[in-house]
Amino acid sequence: xxxxxxxxKSFGGLKVLQDVSLTAQPGTITGIIGPNGAGKSTLFSVIxxxxxxxxxxxxxxxxxxxxxxxxxxxxxxxxxxxQVPREFGDLSVLDNLRVAGSHMADEGIVAALLFWRRxxxxxxxxxxxxxxxxxxxxxxxxxxNAARALSGGQKKLLELGRTLMVGPRVLLVDxxxxxxxxxxxxxxxxxxxxxxxxxxxxxxxxxxxxxxMEISDxxxxxxxxxxxxxxxxxxxxxxxxxxxxxxxxxxA
Length: 252
Ligand SMILES: Nc1ncnc2c1ncn2[C@@H]1O[C@H](COP(=O)(O)OP(=O)(O)O)[C@@H](O)[C@H]1O
Ligand SMILES: [Mg+2]
Known about the structure:
By secondary structure, the chain is α/β, with parallel strands linked by helices. The chain has 10 helices and 10 strands. It has helices at residues 40-47, 70-75, 93-100, 108-114, 116-136, 152-164, 182-197, 209-215, 233-238, 240-247, and strands at 2-11, 14-24, 29-33, 55-60, 63-64, 78-80, 170-174, 201-205, 218-223, 226-231. A 6-stranded mixed beta sheet has the order 6-7-8-3-9-10, with helices on both faces. A 4-stranded antiparallel beta sheet has the order 2-1-4-5, covered by helices on one side. The longest helix has 21 residues, at 116-136. The protein is globular and about 55 Å long.
């Protein structure tokens, strides 16, 4: 279980997160919505260790992770995608996935010398897993292409694939559907539902309200650095404060 408790974060004088708390369970999707600048991506950066909070804690299955580096947090099974995909443009699509999974093969230089055979086997396992991921994400046809040549939607798929190479228990996805063509959007939706069915705890930031309402078990509405409303999609949809939050007027 992911538990975020009382997170505060300021940049200079700007209070970007103010007392943000939430919990999320395995095998569920939590949607995070709210206007631009509400602090959604910053919250993901805090949870995944890219930004240190000024106060508050993040824990995974009861263990604090808020003082750990992002790569250590990833090894514990929590990974995030970025709003703007961060693929290695010059590398092939396959190699992007292999790099993302390389920690599985990384046994250090001494081990590499002593156990070269085992290291080669580990490499082969990473490659096999990367190929499975290509199949799963429908990217096999472009496996050898440079990642920078992918369409916007394919880059989102690759970004998702790179995080999945880690074998996460918690997955944070930042605006997966933004700028993605309808056919790929539906593919991505299906992938997220499959990951939930596999028991992964998924948090998704998204402006596509229809998609969020469809896939989320719980929804958090963030406004000006705080979670204004938390509930089921039905509860959130009925709450008049949601509309006023988006229109920027004070709640009635
Ligand atoms: N590294 C940073 N330094 C200074 N201000 C930042 C930084 N990251 C985000 N902000 C500011 O924090 C606020 C929230 O940003 P962000 O978390 O990206 O919002 P959202 O994802 O909800 O659109 C914005 O006002 C943004 O300009
Ligand atoms: Mg954002």
